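Go through this one:
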Amino acid sequence: MSQKPDITDLTICRAAFAAWVFIYHVDLHLHFSQVLGGLSVLITHGYMGVDGFFILSGLVLLHTHREFDAVEHGPLRTEFRWATQGGVLRFYAKRLVRIYPVHLATIFILLALVGGSVALGMPPHSPQRFGLATLVENLFLVQGWGADHFGAWNYPAWSVSTEWAGYLLFPLFALILTYFIRDVSVQVIIAIFPILGVIYFFSGHSLNLAFGAGLIRFFPEFIAGMAAWRITSSIADYTFARRIFLWIGVMLLLGGAVLGVDLVTVIGLWSLIFAFYLQADSERPPLLGRRPVLHFLGLLSYCFYMSFAIAELLTVRAFQHFGWQPTGQKLIFAAMMTALTFILAILLRGFVEQPCRRAANRWLQVAPTPLSVPVTEKPQSLF
């Protein structure tokens, strides 16, 4: 759990994904995308930033936790390193410390806000979002497993709940992917996108599956990210491979986003993330360069993502108090929601996320696992 440097390109991706989701939610109030003509779909499909997080999470976890890589010793014996390097429980503890403190802090903040509003005679606009049963689901991080259908409490946390489900099954997925030869992972990747196509078709030509249906969207993309790590070492040294995946990713991502075809967008996201990781694994400089501001925003992305719903609630309340309409004061609404989100994200990172990770580093200290990428380019997980 040590605070280690991360892969610059992937960290910048995290910032971009969080910004894309944030702009999408701002647009739900302001409808500014309507004046963008053909580019409006790029904004109205901003929920696809979450899909980028899901893919990135699977890749980074398998990169970071090499103890779950099955190591073959002859034809009849395989050593599973997780059995001798702290085990599955240590992994679960490390992942829970990574996501839960910020999640819990946002729930406490919402409890205070909702309680204060009720005390002042201003009950929440959607009281079903703040019930006791849904509070328990959120505390146990199961609200995204099929129970929550309306985004209870801190509604962006539905994706954190699905991530937690992925963490619980990660040792099994990692064992399967690394036990078999790399060709199996290639086959897994080839199979996953048609599966997503079926989901896309039967979901009304959309992958905007959240809350109760989030796991259907999450697992194929999470596994695709893990499989990407598995095949990296066999092609990372080929410059043409990195370029092909980069340009395919850019074209499919932009084309799918502009046309509003979520399936194409997901394939583009996977290809682009894979190209960035290939670049890092080949020990080349970041494709996006050293961008300190964007790098910082990437490190802030989890807290930012977990903060915007609270900022949205406060901004809407303020507008109701003054009798303003968001569409009539677009700049004020956007500026206020953005400022509140950044302020809260910075506070959560400085007073919750980082102190908890430092404490976990002391409690869960383990010997580092050798990595194939440079130590200056080791990624952190998405959440």
